[in-house]
């Protein structure tokens, strides 16, 4: 069993709700174990705050195993903190040093308004999916799964795009708050599979239109999204989306 | 012996469901448009039901407490989903899946439900592939399979170690499609706090908007709970932090029986606890047992590193005790065997509460195959390990990365340390064959119900059940009820039953806020978890359970007089959310102990130390306990037992053997 010996200074964004102004507030923490996860360190902070009669810091989190995509802290200027390919919940305190000062902010983007403290509203992502991130097949209409062989490479590429957890780190890190990596990952997954072909060009148009309507910025190819994505979603997806979008606008019979 | 009716259709087991489907009353399309269904929960069971019912034409409202339906904890399922496709030509069939599931559940599940599950399992795979779920494939382009515990065929479909994620995103996309079409109204960041009953029937819910704190009234002709399991009663579990029993428990308090609450699954392969700060435990998929061998040193209190312990001084205790199934025995058996070795002093690691899961032998074996594929004959060990590691990485890369991230150790070089942890709850709201609870119009699907896994769930069967219920079972069975409700107009939510239910919910919230005690919610939750793990965990006995019941009652009294919930009820207040959930867990914990005490036998995940064979295996009592224990809630946190007798007409009940 590990014992805690790290002392830290936290600068945490506190904001009561979307109608009030927020500010960074300093907290001192001691006795932190390097084996704690970053969110367990926040649990310690919150227990302290409640015991002192203060309100705990509100932050989104759920599975704490890096797959639900709910945790979303901007740590020392990077979404999900200093390590590559890791979500906030899987970040451990051994990635920090005794005496460190750690700045923790919410995702910042016009399309992700702050709800409270470190919690933001990412429902824009759901609306982009609702605009076309699916294959239109009602339950009960499917043919035998093996009647449609799919080359392994293609299936694997679709899987890699489908690994996106919808956390929004790509938007948070982008200077334009662009959602292109998220949107293109879903478009790519479905464009790479034969099942996705009938709606391929309709889908890319409606999802991009919704993405724009939500107020996400444009892509200027800085590649920050790919660098910060905890699931390693590739920039190639954006290229594929752009190709499909152009094809749809210039070649497809179905423009929307 | 039964005093409750499970409404199982008459006829041959193999034709019950087919006959049922073709004779169940239907609701015509114009009536569906005016019938409203409330679905609580957006995991596999909830999202699939919401999407399917909307496709059929019903008006659907779906609720989840997370910020998006895609976050539901089904997303964390790693290993796979079973289906009796027999794509591997290894002798699988609907009957074998049915048989394995009944046997795996230690003969404590309902035959008719399980057979239906096996029948529709094949449709699930077809549906998911049609939705674009990228399941793993072979080079020929066909779907790949792997083995899971408790079976001798390869029937598990998977998507690397992210099968739950991919299946959930499939159901989520189907749900979002219906939301986009205006057929489903989605309420995210909403928590159900009451079921509304009118004339004995479920007619709606009270939900709290977690952002504003406002209580909302929602009418439905029927209400479906797909709200997941209650493993977090143990505080530490592999469940998500927000997973809770509240919706199911509120339903229970309104008359829905709670069945077999003591059946909890302790998963054998989880990352061990590292300290008191621990907030949750992380599973390492059962699929790892395909290639990982479990062992402890033969010598007690051996402090050498794993790599320094020679082969002949290692005890591969599962292979020793269960030669036929080896490392792939069912979860309950593997967990108890690990506990037995650690309790006897053979555990490893700093806490001595861990065993090794070692990939070395199979890494080398894969390396040898790879070498021979590339024409390298007599490869040296280093070459084998290098080539084999690449194979292991492709199969389990994300799990190995997760392990390294959490423990700070490299599992490609040293064996993983693992220990059992609470993972799944087989018990849940009692439902009949139609998935309806004992409250008319109130349905329960997925892990939240009790129906298909008996006393122990087999690996890769939870995803199967969640999607079977949501895509293929409930959409039919709910029609039987709704066809009789077509003349019922939407009931205005100023009806006294809604007002009263809202008052109940508000009363609890205000009480919690106003206690203004000295201890945090987590403090109570941790103490509850400790009692449950020590006395109602992997091994239970009469004395411990009686103590636990007293301890929990005392804890409940202390909670309601000394919990501290900061803030107010009319804002986003995460401590208030947790407090309500822990209050329900405390009551449930007591019922779990009462149920475990009542069941004077060992079966599946329920192991009573007084009832074991000479070899330490679970000893069932089929004469006295071949029943579902369905508990009715009574005023003042009391419980009355009802029994549903389990009849086995198609399977010969036997002592479960994996030797």
From TrEMBL, chain A:
Its cofactor is [3Fe-4S] cluster; [2Fe-2S] cluster. Gene3D superfamilies: 3.10.20.30, Alpha-helical ferredoxin. It comes from the Bacteria. Residues 155-185 form the 4Fe-4S ferredoxin-type domain. SUPFAM superfamilies: 2Fe-2S ferredoxin-like (SSF54292), alpha-helical ferredoxin (SSF46548). InterPro entries: 2Fe-2S_ferredoxin-like_sf, 2Fe2S_fd_BS, 4Fe4S_Fe-S-bd, Beta-grasp_dom_sf, Helical_ferredxn, SDH/FRD_Iron-Sulfur, Succ_DH/fum_Rdtase_N. PROSITE patterns: 2FE2S_FER_1, 4FE4S_FER_2. Belongs to the succinate dehydrogenase/fumarate reductase iron-sulfur protein family. This is Succinate dehydrogenase/fumarate reductase iron-sulfur subunit. It comes from Pedobacter rhodius.
UniProtKB/TrEMBL annotation, chain B:
InterPro entries: FAD-dep_OxRdtase_2_FAD-bd (IPR003953), FAD/NAD-bd_sf (IPR036188), Fum_R/Succ_DH_flav-like_C_sf (IPR037099), Fum_Rdtase/Succ_DH_flav-like_C (IPR015939), SdhA/FrdA/AprA (IPR030664), Succ_DH/Fum_Rdt_flav_su (IPR011280), Succ_DH/fumarate_Rdtase_cat_sf (IPR027477). It comes from the Bacteria. Gene3D superfamilies: FAD/NAD(P)-binding domain, Fumarate reductase/succinate dehydrogenase flavoprotein-like, C-terminal domain, Succinate dehydrogenase/fumarate reductase flavoprotein, catalytic domain. Residues 525-658 form the Fumarate reductase/succinate dehydrogenase flavoprotein-like C-terminal domain. Pfam families: FAD_binding_2, Succ_DH_flav_C. Residues 37-463 form the FAD-dependent oxidoreductase 2 FAD-binding domain. Keywords: Flavoprotein, Oxidoreductase. The keyword Transmembrane helix does not apply. Its cofactor is FAD. PANTHER family: SUCCINATE DEHYDROGENASE 2 FLAVOPROTEIN SUBUNIT (PTHR11632), SUCCINATE DEHYDROGENASE FLAVOPROTEIN SUBUNIT (PTHR11632:SF53). This is Fumarate reductase/succinate dehydrogenase flavoprotein subunit. It comes from Pedobacter rhodius.
